[in-house]
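Hi Y.,

Following your request, here is the sequence exactly as I used it, all 67 residues.
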Amino acid sequence: MAGALSDMRFLTVAEVADMMRVSTMTVYRLVKSGELPAVRFGRSYRIPESAVAAAVELPDAHGHRAG
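Below is the corresponding structure, written out as tokens. Let me know if you'd prefer a different format.
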């Protein structure tokens, strides 16, 4: 268990926003809606890099890839 957790990389909201080319508010909305899983550390959120990669790879409503 500890090995799997140590292999995970967590990103800040600002880093995710930069990667997805959206505003930080959009990332907060995705976290709040549950579309993007996140862990809360104090007053900030950390998003698993694997969750961001999965969100970018999901097809949109028209069947196109989002990236």
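The mean pLDDT is 86.

Thanks again,
Q.
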